[in-house]
Design goal:
The protein is an all-alpha fold. Helix content is 69%, strand content 0%.
Length: 659
């Protein structure tokens, strides 16, 4: 395996076409990239100056002031990273359009997010998802478990996969060693997360989404032009068979007969349709409705209508990946059949350094070979930008989770400033762990990045989706039920995940020898089974233990969402803003003026010394009311509702058309 894992440095040095090691050797590309990064930094700095980053609410929730279009764009951008461009295009090159169904599933789930989940989160007045569970169930263990698991998932699926895919791009374009590429990327990214907080992330996301969509549209145009239109694309894809096949079975390298169908055979399909309809919806519910990265975007909205409109915009944007990533990935297989569709391990090793297959290079190869000078620079900067936008949003959310849910357990009296510093130091630790995990990502799931992400998600997240759904829609569920449901669910999921990594996922040429009873169940079916088991355990244990009284649940679950009585919290907040106590015993000391260096550093990191104006008790209550208010203007409520119905119809039509 060592060749697979550490074959990075070999990727370009021994590749066949050594002539174009460096694709970026012209002034047009380089100047576009430089201008692009200057603009992004400019936007970041503008957002940094404009918003309040010195408070926890400002840094982590953008001061609750966002309108709908940046929210929609930011939801889309933090969801679509370069992992999508590499992963979806790669899986499409290998297996056809069914992978697009993963994106379209979100059209339905974002409506569930904006209409059912976010109103409850806003009424509950929470900043992080574990905090919601703490208010709903009381006790510490669920909250800590969820925080740790989320951080775990960030490292294993999102951060390392995104870094790996960004590195493939840099490696295709510049011929740099992958690790060097990753370290460069991280330095730039960390710079503007550490300094900017959420508002900077949301504004730069919006800018990047626009450029990403425009750039990939242009590339799609070039790609279709090159293969001669949709009709010819369908015919030529079915004939794209690599030249070197030796004596490997035909099913390993011929395009699948059902390449142009989203819904595939329930037993023999590589993405069976019941799994795509139900199993995927469970993962999507976890990702869109209970994941910190996504919900944090929604909670920063001005009011509920803006949340809903943002969700709808994001839904329409999610129609695009099928055309912007899936089709170009398949075209890449037509144009570079021998490289993208290689099956012979030695051949693959030669083209991209991974013996399990080279589909991951499908999209980067198109960008580097098809785009004209200047546009190529733009596309590469977009890829890096999309990578940075998902990394920044993950770093921001991960440090929120760490400081608010884990750090405050150990330091109950931490000052706001100490929390901000702890969050920023934590980001650096995350980066180190993620770099170490990259080699595993490279060789998992026959070298198909997107399958790797989805399979880990389906082993670990269904119990979380079950707990959140039952917490909101079934008030009988209590803490022991939820906790044991999560724990037993985790054990079942880990059995499968560890077995898969121990035996290796194998590839078509060298299948894995994992026992069928463990690895034989398709991962989408596995997530359905796990979800159902978790629900049964949660409900079963809740019914035999003591229910939670209604007075603790006002505005925390769907049936009690409109109650106005004072809620008795099951558990006090861990971290109370210390400034309140310290102000009472303040003796007016003359404030020491910090030195120039210190001032610059503090300003850069948003830790300015200015004390926030002190609010009276009435003002505090007013502010709290405003933050947990979900009223909507009737006109706008009807507008967003009508749009949601249209969006659902579009989703059904798209699935039907390509089914």
């Amino acid at each position: 395996m060592s060749r697979d894992y550490f074959g990075f440095s070999l990727i370009r040095s021994n590749a066949k076409n050594d002539t174009n090691t460096v694709a970026l050797n012209n002034a047009a590309d380089i100047s576009v990239i430089v201008i692009y990064f200057l603009v992004v930094l400019g936007v970041g700095i503008w957002a940094m100056v404009r918003t309040n980053r010195a408070t926890v609410g400002g840094f982590f929730l953008a001061g609750r002031s966002m309108v709908w279009w940046p929210i929609g764009a930011s939801l889309f951008a933090s969801n679509i990273g370069s992992g999508h461009f590499v992963g979806i295009a790669g899986t499409a090159a290998a297996a056809g359009i069914a992978i697009g169904g993963f994106e379209w599933n979100a059209l339905i789930v974002v409506v569930i997010l904006g209409w059912l989940f976010v109103p409850i989160y806003i009424k509950a007045g929470v900043v992080t998802m574990p905090e919601y569970l703490k208010k709903r169930f009381g006790g510490q263990r669920i909250r800590i478990y969820l925080s740790v698991l989320s951080l775990f998932l960030y490292v294993f699926t999102k951060i390392s996969a995104d870094m790996f895919s960004g590195a493939i791009f840099i490696n295709q374009a510049l011929g740099l060693n992958i690790y060097l590429a990753v370290i460069m990327l991280l330095l730039i990214t960390a710079l503007y997360t550490v300094t900017g907080g959420l508002a900077a992330v949301i504004y730069t996301d919006t800018l990047q989404t626009i450029i990403m969509v425009v750039g990939s549209f242009i590339l799609m145009g070039f790609a279709f032009h090159k293969v001669g239109g949709y009709q010819s694309f369908q015919e030529r894809y079915m004939e794209a068979v690599p030249a070197f096949t030796t004596n490997i079975s035909a099913s390993c390298y011929e395009p699948r007969a059902d390449s142009f169908h989203i819904f595939r055979n329930a037993i023999t399909g590589d993405l069976p349709w019941p799994g795509l309809v139900f199993g995927l919806t469970i993962q999507a519910t976890w990702y869109w409705c209970t994941d910190q990265v996504i919900v944090q975007r929604c909670l920063s909205a001005k009011n509920l209508s803006h949340v809903k409109a943002g969700c709808i915009l994001c839904g329409y944007l999610k129609l695009l990946p099928m055309f912007l990533m899936v089709f170009p990935g398949m075209i890449s297989r037509i144009l570079y059949t021998d490289e993208v569709a290689c099956v012979e391990p030695a051949e693959c090793e030669k083209y991209c350094g991974a013996s399990v297959g080279c589909t991951n290079i499908a999209y980067p190869k198109l960008v580097v070979d098809l785009m004209p000078d200047g546009l190529r620079g733009l596309m590469l900067s977009v890829m890096l930008a999309s990578l940075m936008s998902s990394l920044t949003s993950i770093f921001n959310s991960a440090s929120t989770l760490f400081t608010m849910d884990i750090y405050t357990k150990f330091r109950r009296t931490a000052s706001e400033k100490e929390l901000m510093i702890a969050g920023r130091v934590f980001i650096l630790a995350l980066i180190g762990v993620s770099i170490a995990w990259i080699p595993v990502v490279q060789s998992a799931q026959s070298g198909q990045l997107f399958d790797y992400i989805q399979s880990i998600t389906s082993y670990l997240t269904p119990p979380i989706a079950a707990v959140f759904m039952l917490a909101i829609f079934c008030k009988r569920v209590n803490e022991p039920g939820a906790f044991y449901g999560l724990m037993i669910g985790l054990l079942i999921g880990l059995c499968r995940m560890i077995a898969e990594f121990a035996y290796g996922t194998g590839s078509c040429v060298n299948p894995s020898d994992c026992p069928t009873i463990i690895c034989g169940v398709h991962y989408l079916y596995f997530s359905i089974i796990l979800f159902v088991v978790s629900c049964v355990i949660i409900l079963g244990i809740s019914l035999v233990t003591k229910p939670i009284a209604d007075k603790h649940l006002y505005r925390l679950c769907w049936s009690l969402r409109n109650r106005t009585e004072e809620r008795v919290d099951l558990e006090q907040d861990d971290w109370v803003d210390n400034q309140k106590d310290s102000n009472s015993m303040d003796i007016d000391e003359p404030d020491e003026e910090p030195g120039l260096c210190k001032k610059a550093v503090m300003c850069f990191c948003g830790l300015e010394q200015k004390k926030a104006p002190k609010l009276s008790a009435e003002e505090e209550e007013e502010l709290q009311k405003k933050l947990t208010d979900t009223t909507e203007v009737p006109l706008w409520r009807n507008v967003v509702n009508a749009n949601a119905i249209i969006l659902l119809c579009v989703a059904v039509f798209c699935h039907g058309f390509f089914a």
